[in-house]
Amino acid sequence: MTQTQEVRVRYAPSPTGDPHVGNIRTALFNWLYARHTGGKFILRIEDTDQLREAQGALSAILQSLRWLGLQWDEGPEVGGPYAPYIQSERLPLYQEAARRLVAQGHAYTCYCTPEELEAMRKMQQQRREPPRYERRCRDAAYREKKAKEGGPSVIRFRTPLEGDAIVVHDLVRNGVSFDPATLDDFVLLKSAGFPTYHLANVVDDHFMHITHVLRAEEWLPSTPRHLMLYRALGYNVPKFGHLPMILGPDRSKLSKRHGATALLDYRAQGFLPEAMVNFLALLGWSLDDKTEVLSQEELVRHFSIERISKAAAIFNIEKLTWMNGVYIRKMGPEALAAQLATALTHHAQEKGITLAAPITQDALRPITPLVQERLHTMQPQEVWDLCGFFLTPLPAYGDAPFRKSPLAPQARRAALEETVVALESLEDFSATALEGALRPLAERLGLKTRDLFMLIRIAVTGTDVAPPLFETMAVLGKERTLERLRYAIRLAG
Ligand code: GLU
């Protein structure tokens, strides 16, 4: 690659299910590198394994990228100079490459049936040998005999039987060598004319002029095969960088046990895309080993392959939740009110909750400063628990929350009645005025302020973990606050 050549990187998912966070981390690193260098980010769908294809997976891939704002420059739905970007629509290219490899002696047709391969595998297992193709059809005489018998065939690569070690010059892990003797004659083209991952991946990276292959470490063992293919096909070799594994906090492979693994589940759980991008960027990359909060623009500005680490990254959901809180607190009041409106409307509709008035951004504006510090996610239930009582005619509570109050029912009732009297005469219903009225009341009643305020809080909101009390009452207004206090008196019997 010359200095002036444009960087072209790709994200090449297989549509086998909803993309998981590890997969999207690969997309993000490629996107960041493309944006950092002013290059191109290409999306290619590797759907040549028809058996593993899952319904809806393509749409989940596109949605995941769009949710995070990782727009691709070439690929499905946007097109580009090397279209199509879906491998099942590019079969002739792979078939042609396979034919050429056979013609040049780099590959051969193999007629071994699945039953024969299975029998071979069993024998190898018994002999405690690693499973591999025994290269029967590599022998021309045997192959010709089998060809006469007819039947389905595949095309296999003729891996050199000896030779120097194959060295992958990896941008992240430097030189990694592989002994060619450990590589078998892998399949390039399957019997139905579909390529394997290895063939299609190399052919496409060549024809799409990919300059850097940044992909997960799990693909590193495939890379020596790819290098042999590049050589045999006479293609220029791109640069490779294998991204570190992502582990759970217990250092085992990230799985459902550690929380959701599909990216879109995090959207459903109320995580913000900005927080997700920041969090994923730090899974295997860092600016300086200490800076945690970086905006998308900062990430683009600073991203470099040099600072990708070799060591496995740990996926810590608590860190993600913390980071999400950081981003919620960074939101402007209008944006937050809009997000709250969406979450609350969703929740109210789903649960069939009766509302005092329609949920609007305007109605939520005074509430946002009260909850902004307290929200961890935008998950509808969490948002509802914090804001719902502002929106319903009366909070939907019975006697249960009052059991948290240390006061006996009789004392509760008396305290609430006195509170009503104190508030009825209050002209100014601001937070300061409310505090000015209620602190002396506690003293008059001989109650700890903490106990009185907790009681009022439960009466007004239905819970003891609501936003700041006086501000909450001020937002609710005099009429609704008194209505709730009177309701609580009736409950106290
Ligand atoms: N289709 C492979 C995957 O699903 C792509 C691996 C690569 O980037 O070469 O991850």
Map the helices and strands.
Elements: E1 8-11, H1 21-37, E2 40-43, H2 57-68, H3 91-103, E3 107-110, H4 114-126, H5 140-149, E4 154-157, E5 166-170, E6 174-178, E7 187-189, H6 197-207, E8 212-216, H7 223-233, E9 239-243, E10 246-247, H8 263-268, H9 273-281, H10 296-302, E11 313-314, H11 317-330, H12 333-351, H13 361-364, H14 368-371, H15 380-391, H16 409-424, H17 431-445, H18 449-461, H19 469-476, H20 478-492
Parallel strand pairs: 1-2, 8-9, 10-11
Antiparallel strand pairs: 3-4, 4-7, 5-6
The protein binds glutamic acid (GLU).
Overview of this protein structure:
The chain has 20 helices and 11 strands. By secondary structure, it is mostly helical. It has a 3-stranded antiparallel sheet with strand order 3-4-7. A two-stranded parallel ribbon has the order 1-2. α9 (273-281) crosses α11. The longest helix is centred in the last third of the chain and has 19 residues, at 333-351. Residues 12-14, 46, 201, 215, 219 line the site of glutamic acid (GLU). The site of glutamic acid has 7 residues, from loops.
Mean pLDDT: 95
Low-confidence stretches: none
How many independent structural domains?
Answer: 5
Largest sheet: 3 strands, antiparallel
**DSSP summary, beta strand count:** 11
Second-tier CATH architecture of the largest domain? 3-Layer(aba) Sandwich
Strand content: 5-15%
Helix content: 40-55%
CATH class of the largest domain: Alpha Beta
User: For the terminal residues, how far apart are their CA atoms?
Assistant: 83 Å
Radius of gyration: 32 Å
Query: Remind me, CATH topology of the largest domain?
Result: Rossmann fold
Query: Compounds present?
Result: glutamic acid
